[in-house]
Every structure is written in structure tokens, then in C-alpha cells.
Amino acid sequence: MITPHSRRGRAATHKPIAMRSVLSVAIASSIWLAGCGDDNDFDNDVDIVSSATVEFVNSFSASQVDSSFGLGSTATPAAKCGVTIEKVSYDTKGAADEDTNATAALMLPTGDAPECQGARPLLLYAHGTTTDKSYDFAQVGNIQNPAVSEANLIAANFAAQGYIVVAPNYAGYDDSTLDYHPYLVAQQQSTDMVDALDSARDIMARQKRANAVNYRDIADSGKLFIAGYSQGGYVTMSTARLLQSQEKPVTAIAPSSGPYALAAFGDEIFRGNVNIGASRFAPLLGSGLQEKYGNIYNKKSDIFLDKYANAQLPNELPFGELVDTGKLPNNALFQKNPSDPRLAGLEQGKLFSILGGYDENDYLIKTDFRAAYVADTDKHPDGLWAENGDGLPAAMPKNTLRKALKDNDLRGYVPTMPTLLCGGNQDPTVYFDTNTGSMVTLLQAAAKKSAKNLNVTVLDVDIDNADERPDQQTLSLIGQAAMNTWDAEAVRVRVQTRFSQSVEKIKSDAEAQGNIPLIAFYTNYHGGLVSPACTEATRAFFDQNFNPVVNPT
């Protein structure tokens, strides 16, 4: 059996103490997880049955978008439209199918340009991981809200280019009364997204009939695009899967840097390669899966050290304050030198894992819980890690957490709409080869059987380590993707060049400030470097003249 970080000796020694303290200060900056019918008659097909409500939040002219959103270091184009921001409140379900509510940003293009009027495409956007309860995508331009960076990026790149944007905050955030977030629970998250989409479309139809000023000059064309980053990449793919199963039209999707291979990813982490952001993700995932399945633990202290067991995420307090007050560790997931024989010989993963993933006393997950999980990976290995494996989740895991991860793993899904998969291969937060790479292998195998309904483009934005990956392509066209009308090669070159320039700036700025360039690289990679690069690629991909796709046969 071949497993990640297998039981091999390590001859080299490491001196991570000074670097670990730098990593602890910088980790937070990396966690920005961190997006049909007749084109002219869509409004006439909407049944007004929703209880959704809407309120005005703010509006920006095109010049204000260009001057005040702080996106000068990104590839964001000049705004063609102004943007009006409204907030939709809607009903949805929690992980246990309980009734709850949630909110979403509704961004409407405004202005006299042709791109800002008439029938407009709609982007359903899924945001990345956050521990902040107050995260509200409707707070575009509001630097007091933790959503502002991602919200500004999407508003400028899509709403200001003529897209109607619906961006759910998800159940458990903002004004939602749910006291947890169903993190990476595929059925709930995709249902939440569709509920937000249906509610926003209901609102638009209602407001247009009322001749409301913000809705008077635009209409939903029926072209639906879905995109998201990190957690949002996962949510994008799970939402596309749900709509595809319902035979509802989706024009194209662009999931980026998502943990699609959730079971394999979990195994890799538990076997030693701890990702940056681990102590944020684990409490969110544990509580969401517990609400869904009811058997992950009897009490939180079964998983987490007693001193951390009562931590609640999402939280009104910023994550840094939770760390400062001893409610959670900064990033350490596991005990540094465990004595449990079931963990003997496991390595501590890559450098970022060694520096931040372990501590002798202040770690999150109890060693006996980890050991039981690892023992199950030995007996029932994931198909991605097993020798001659099929690349799919383990057939019959016994550990309850592994069962839950398998149930929410997206491997095996084959999208029938045009798809862009984007990410960066050195990502220390959501591992590219494990997640995007495993999906690509399975999709390539599916294309060999029948390429007719497959149209998947895969972009790795990072070529800085190309010499270390001579057999890995950074642009792959699967199925019918070579027939797309955009110049994929030109986009690849442009995005990768800009990415490399951004990496160089991050490292040189760190050195000039007396910081460690490698730590700056790691802590900015996922949220600060790959995210805007994939946003640029997504915008170019969606700008092709795609037509809505209903599940073809």
C-alpha cells in the first residue's frame, strides 16, 4: 500500500522554531478561502411563491469601482458598469434538514453602456472559508466587514462587467439564525446555493413587475454561470452536480482550488501533511458533519483537547482573538511527538506542515482520535493512495469521520456543462494534486470512454516550479474543450506571467521588510496569489459565447 507520508525514516534535521513563530503571525493572511430557458422570457416563467425579501445596501458608479476597491495589484479590468448592491434574505435548510434562513448579496449592473442593460448573464458565486460570523458579501466597499476583499474582487470583475451576481453568505453567517455552519456538507451547501438563486430570481421578477428603479433596465437572460474559490470551489461543483441531476440549465462553471477529493484530502492531513488553516477548518467541519450524521462524536472533547472543545465557529470574534484568548490553537492540529504506536513512523509532511501543523501541548485534535482514524486508513486505503488504486474513495471505511468524508467527496462527478478547473500546484491550504489532480485523472478516463458531453479545461496558474514537475501540464483540454472559442493558450500565458510577477513581489517585499520570503510565499499563496489569478481566468472563460446546457443524453 502506498499512502501519503508513509512510514519512512527521515535523516535530515529541521530547525523550525524561529520560523514557526513567524508562520503563526502570518497564517491568517493566507486564509481567504480561502465562485435557463428563453433568453428574453425568463421573468415570465417564475412562480412568485418565495418568502424572500430584499433591501438596498449601497451603490457605486463605475469610477468609484475603479478608484476605491483596492484592486490595483490584480488583473481586474476597468469597470464598464456601476454596481448596485442589495441583500436578499431567504429560507433554506440546515445539515439536519431543519428550517433556517440565510442571506445573499445581489449585485446589479447599472449604467448606459450596452453591457449594463437588457438581458444580462447571472453569476452564482460561492465564497471561500471564513470563521467570521459577520461575513456579509453585500458589504462591498465596507472595510469594516471581513468579506470586503473577496466581495470587492467579484463585484469589480463580474457585476461591473455586466453580470448580475448572486453571492450567498451561507447558512450560519450574517443574519442566519443557524448556530453552526454546514461546512462542506455537499447536500446542504448545494441546496443553500439553489435556494439563494431561486430567491434572487424571484426578487428580480417581483421588483421588475413593480417597476423598481434598480431593476427597470436589466433582466435575467437565463444564462447561469457558477463559480467559487476554495470552499467555494467545492460548493460550485456540488451545486452544479445538484442542478445537473435536476436537469436544470447551467451555462458554464469554474470551480477553483476546492477540496473536491475530500476523503483523500482528509487522509493526507491525518497521516501527517497538515495544511495551513487546519485549526480553522477542523472545528467547522466537525460540527457540520456532526449535525448531518450525528455520529462523528458523542461530545466535542472526543475529538478536540478539552481546552479547545467549547470553541464555536463561526464566531463573532476574529480568529486571532480566539487564539489570543486560548480558545483555539493558531494552526497546530496534532501532537508533535505522539507515543501511540498506530502513528509510529508517520512523517510530518511538507515544510509548511512541519512549521505550523504540530505542537507538543497546544494542538487541536486528540491523539487517540487521530490514531483511530489513521488505523482505518491502513485497513481501508483511499483509492488515490492505494497501490494500483482506482482513484476513488475507500469502498468501505469503518471510521465514522472517514465515512462522512466519503459521502461528501465529489470524485466520480462528471460535469456536462463547460467547466474550468483552476488552481496552483504549490497550494499549502488545499492541495492541488490531491484535489484538482485526482478529479482531472478521473475526467480524462471518462473522456476516453465518451468525450461527447465533456468540456473541461484545467489551468495550473503556477509555473515557478515547472522544472520539478516536468511531466505535468499546466493547461489541459479534456473532451470538447479544444473547440471552445477563447484563446486558452494566450490566457494561460497571461495569467501565469502575472502570477509569477506577483510571487516575486511577495518575496522581495518580505525580504525588504526583514521577513522570511518562503513564509510570505506560503501564507499568501492560497488567498493572495492564486485567488485573483483564477478570477482572471474565470472571467475570460465565461466571456465565451456559451449557451445554457441541460443535462445531455
Automatic annotation (TrEMBL):
<protein>
    <submittedName>
        <fullName>Alpha/beta fold hydrolase</fullName>
    </submittedName>
</protein>
<dbReference type="InterPro" id="IPR005152">
    <property type="entry name" value="Lipase_secreted"/>
</dbReference>
<dbReference type="GO" id="GO:0016042">
    <property type="term" value="P:lipid catabolic process"/>
</dbReference>
<dbReference type="InterPro" id="IPR029058">
    <property type="entry name" value="AB_hydrolase_fold"/>
</dbReference>
<dbReference type="GO" id="GO:0004806">
    <property type="term" value="F:triacylglycerol lipase activity"/>
</dbReference>
<keyword id="KW-0378">Hydrolase</keyword>
